[in-house]
Amino acid sequence: MANSIDQSSRGTVDPTIIKAENLWFKDCGLVIRSGNIVFRVSGEILAAKSSVFQDMLRMPQPRGGETFDGCAVVCLPDDPRDTTVFLRVIFDSEFFEPYPAKTGFDTIHGVLRLSNKYLVDYLRRRALIHLSCRFPTTLDGWMSATPTSWTIEPDLLIPVINLAREVSALWILPAVFYSLCINTPHHFGALARGVPFPRHRRPPRAARPRDRPRGLPRAARFPERLPGCMTSARCYAARSAERKYREGLQYQLGYRPLELWGDAEWRQLPPTICTPCVEGMKGMHYQAIQNFWDDLPAKYRLPCWEDLEQMKDVALL
Ligand SMILES: [Zn+2]
Q1: Are residues 73 and 22 in the same domain?
Q2: What distance in angstroms lies between residue 235's CA and the mean position of ligand 1's atoms?
């Protein structure tokens, strides 16, 4: 519904102003304007949740200041989409429930940006837990199917990186950068050509092509002799063939070292590879991808996992 802002000092009218659906409470006396959307809400509830709003609303209204339907207007410079989500969460407790309740990236984005800016700690923590659930800080977390509360498309990875930078959630970045490398090689070409990204899709500072991990993982390079091998010559030939096949797949499917050998691949190994060698290969492979994972933050010039974990603990606990 269109409505007009009365600017009592000048009597100007803005016909493009829209009242926010579900956030227009007639018994409340504060109007918030964000872009061309107005929200009528309780200033007292906002002040109780956010010390920044408390200070802002304590300041006397300037004479001749903007009013709407007779209420004082506070203008926020934030994106109206973020403001809508943030206020919805403040005034509707069921709209954004704690993990593992389902939510979406736009909601996480709005809540996290504005709760970080306006110091609403419980919402900041809740949004960070939702954001972090998709980007583990351990290899076991990456390899296991941890329940997630929101879905992600490759095009959201750059907005996720920008959001993490803005709110200092650096612990998710190694996994996000790795996801970006394996899912969206086209982004690197676009970044290199300086193609601009819409809205909050600016190119992340640390996701330049040179950050992409290079070289084949040692996981695929099994040695000639493995301890306990029962049929050394035949078994070695089979292991070599398998290794070459896997290395070839890397070129066909893209560079995905953590996904190179999954449970299905281990089950499909030819029977000419003896059981002790299969176990030896699994152990060597797991150690190799663990080393790869341990080095991941350094590949993207981020703090080490230990420091990232500490940041995460401080922010989430
Ligand atoms: Zn063997």
Answers
A1: yes
A2: 5
Three-state secondary structure of 233-279: HHHHHHHHHHHHHHHHHHHHHCCCHHHCCCHHHHHCCCCCCCHHHHH
Instruction: Give the Å distance between the CA of 227 and the centre of ligand 1.
Output: 8
pLDDT digit string, tens, across residues 276-285: 999 988 888 8
- Phi, psi dihedrals of residue 6, rounded to the nearest 5°: -90, 120
| pLDDT tens figures, 73-100 | 999 999 999 999 999 999 999 999 999 9
Domain with 30 in it: 2-78
What is the Å distance from ligand 1's center to 193 Cα? 49
Q: Which residue has the tokens 């593992």?
A: 100
* 192 and 110 in a common domain: yes
Q: How many angstroms separate the CA atoms of 105 and 265, rounded? A: 33
| Residue 306 domain flag | no
The number of domains in the chain is 3
How many angstroms is it from 242 CA to the middle of ligand 1?
13
Instruction: Please give the structure tokens belonging to residue 43.
Output: 């200033």
Q: Is residue 46 part of a domain?
A: yes
Rounded to the nearest whole angstrom, what is the distance from the C-alpha of residue 275 to the centroid of ligand 1?
7
State which residues have CB under 5 angstroms from ligand 1, the bound ion.
229, 235, 274, 277
Question: How far is the centre of ligand 1, averaged over its atoms, from the C-alpha of 234 (Å)?
Answer: 8
What is the CA(278)–ligand 1 centre distance, in A?
7
Between the CA of 258 and the centroid of ligand 1 the distance, in Å, is 24
Verify that 198 and 117 share a domain, yes or no. yes
254 with 189, same domain: the answer is no
Count the neighbouring beta carbons within 10 Å of the beta carbon of residue 167: 18
- Domain membership of residue 181 (yes or no) is yes
